[in-house]
Design goal:
Distance between the termini of chain B: 31 Å
Order of helices and strands of chain B: EEEHEEHEHHHHEHEHEEHH
Radius of gyration of chain B: 18 Å
Strand order of the largest sheet of chain B: 6-7-8-3-9-10
CATH class of chain B: Alpha Beta
Structural class of chain A: mainly alpha
Number of helices of chain A: 11
Radius of gyration of chain A: 23 Å
Number of strands of chain B: 10
Oligomer: heterodimer
Shape of chain A: globular
Number of domains of chain B: 1
CATH architecture of chain B: 3-Layer(aba) Sandwich
Largest interface: A-B, 23 and 28 residues
Largest sheet of chain A: 2 strands, antiparallel
Number of helices of chain B: 10
CATH architecture of chain A: Orthogonal Bundle
CATH topology of chain B: Rossmann fold
Largest sheet of chain B: 6 strands, mixed
CATH class of chain A: Mainly Alpha
Helix content of chain A: over 70%
CATH superfamily of chain A: MetI-like
Order of helices and strands of chain A: HHEEHHHHHHHHH
Strand content of chain A: under 5%
Chain lengths: 285, 248
């Protein structure tokens, strides 16, 4: 009998895996360092509480912050109920036939469609056909469409993890199918569903392409937050400051500050997802 | 003895596979009947047909007449929730709801619009020999109980609805010997009020608790009768081989 005694090969295997991990971490750290080191100096209370002024060379980024928050809210209000209900239908009610399989494949494929295509679709449907104009609602709905496949997929995965014995327990005491889902299945799957929802929304909040044609404005002077009007958003503001502004060098610190705020917002949303999962895990055990 | 539950000419198939073949069997009121037989012989399928658990499988085809006393269990005008209220079930693996101990009992009562005050909950837990162990932790998540306690909680949950029949699908197969004995004691005690049908792989368990025993093999009932007769004087050679451990 021959034993595998080749120590060298196991060291190489281990070393290869470790070094790829380190390389990935290295780039991640460089990106974060670049943004933090160049953006931290412009970060202040004024920066996030003042509106942009003097051709966006001075002032803060309150207008795009408000825009992004409202945009994400509209996205959530549209995508969560539709996405969760759709996933419940697919996982709990739909029979496993060709129609269901086609729907499911279509949803999976939709999550791979480039976001700019969603932007064009939103322009055609919400802005023009439904006459919403370039507005907060049109952009929010477009981002909602973009988020739907992710929410459906993650919710369905969360529902799949609930064992059938849990459903049988409720049915066996005389619960209807709907009561079983509402009272037992959904609460059990809640941590998985919420995690998927928050991660999807944090991705949507950072999207630029879908809002480009549907409502994001270069600059808004004065009051903002009207659902039927254009708005400023953090990712688009960043894009614009970095490439489109007439005095790019002058606004560079503001651009990095905006990037940092965007990263922090996304990080906070991810932290929320982490916390939700932690809290539910604790309750379950 | 009055017949409580019965199946007449019952055939069940899943897709192309016929699992139960022309079953004729009846269970007497306030008795314990054990269903024994090798894995895959259709005991669980038979058990689950009485509270219509196969309704969940779209490819299940059920032919024959199942009755709770005179009630046709598969009649179109009988609500399935009503049947499951009258025929309770305890599963192989304890499956408490991911809720508190108290809520585990209260839930079934609530959805059936039955009173669910503390006395009712206490009575159900007492009946399942669990009250003394949990009376100070009613708010605790049920999943923190031990396996045996969880299974007794599931029995309490079934009992709380005051069913007429309790179906048990190998309720002790995941439990240690001490918990198993406790549950067997409990089952014998429940016989005073309820008709019990229990699927078991454990020959000793069948002999310890069952009044009647039904031996099934490859989807058919091969022999049925008083437990001591089945185990001491089996008429069918197959039964004899099975209970003596020649296969299974």
């Amino acid at each position: 009998m021959q034993y595998k005694t080749n120590k060298l090969s196991s060291v190489i295997e281990w070393g290869t895996l470790l070094s790829t991990t380190l390389i990935v971490c290295f780039f991640l750290i460089v990106i974060i360092w670049e943004i933090v080191s160049k953006g931290a100096s412009s970060l202040s209370w004024e920066f996030i509480s003042k509106v942009p002024s003097e051709g966006m060379t001075k002032g803060g980024i309150l207008t795009p912050i408000i825009g992004t928050v409202l945009l994400t809210l509209i996205t959530a209000l549209f995508a969560i109920p539709f996405g969760v209900c759709c996933a419940i239908y697919l996982n709990e009610y739909a029979e496993n036939n060709w129609l269901t399989r086609t729907i499911r494949a279509a949803i999976r494929n939709l999550s791979g469609v480039p976001s700019i295509i969603y932007g064009l679709f939103g322009l055609a449907l919400f802005v023009q056909a439904l006459q919403f104009g370039t507005s907060l609602i049109a952009a929010g709905l477009t981002l909602g469409l973009l988020s739907l496949p992710y929410i459906i997929t993650t919710t369905e995965e969360a529902l799949k993890r609930i064992p059938n014995s849990t459903r049988e327990a409720a049915l066996a005491v005389g619960a209807t199918k709907f009561e079983t889902i509402k009272d037992v299945v959904l609460p059990s799957a809640m941590s998985g569903i919420l995690t998927g929802v928050v991660l999807t929304l944090s991705r949507a909040a950072g999207e630029t392409a879908p809002i480009l044609f549907t409502g994001a404005a270069f600059y808004i002077n004065g009051s903002t937050g009207y659902i039927n009007q254009e708005f400023m958003a953090l990712p688009y503001h960043l894009y614009m400051l970095s490439t489109q502004h007439q005095s790019i060098d002058q606004v560079r610190p503001i651009a990095y500050g905006t990037a940092l705020v965007l990263v922090i917002v996304v990080f906070l949303l991810n932290l929320t997802a982490f916390y939700i999962r932690y809290k539910y895990r604790k309750n379950e055990n | 003895m009055k017949t409580k539950l019965s199946a007449e000419n019952l055939n069940i198939s899943f897709g192309d596979k016929q699992v139960l073949k022309n079953i004729n069997v009846s269970f007497a009121e306030k008795e314990i009947t054990a269903l024994i037989g090798p894995s895959g012989c259709g005991k669980s399928t038979l058990l689950r047909s009485f509270n219509r658990m196969h309704d969940l499988s779209p490819d299940a085809h059920i032919n024959g007449i199942l009755r709770l006393e005179d009630l046709d269990l598969y009649a179109k005008n009988v609500p399935v929730t009503e049947i499951r209220k009258r025929i309770g079930m305890v599963f192989q693996k304890a499956n408490p709801f991911p809720k508190s101990i108290y809520e585990n009992i209260a839930y079934g009562l609530k959805i059936n619009n039955l009173p669910h005050d503390k006395e009712v909950i206490q009575k159900a837990l007492e009946e399942a020999y669990l009250w003394d162990e949990v009376k100070n932790d009613l708010k605790m998540p049920a999943t923190r109980l031990s396996g045996g306690q969880q299974q007794r909680l599931c029995i309490a949950r079934a009992v709380a609805l005051r069913p007429e029949v309790i179906l048990m699908d190998e309720p002790c197969s995941a439990l240690d010997p001490v918990s198993t004995l406790k549950i067997e004691e409990l089952i014998k005690h429940l016989k005073k009020k309820y008709t019990i049908v229990i699927v078991t792989h454990n020959m000793q368990q069948a002999q310890r608790i069952a009044d009647k025993t039904v031996f099934m093999y490859l989807g058919e009932v091969k022999e049925e009768g008083i437990t001591s007769d089945i185990f001491n004087h089996p008429k069918n050679e197959m039964t004899s081989n099975y209970i003596n451990g020649h296969f299974g």
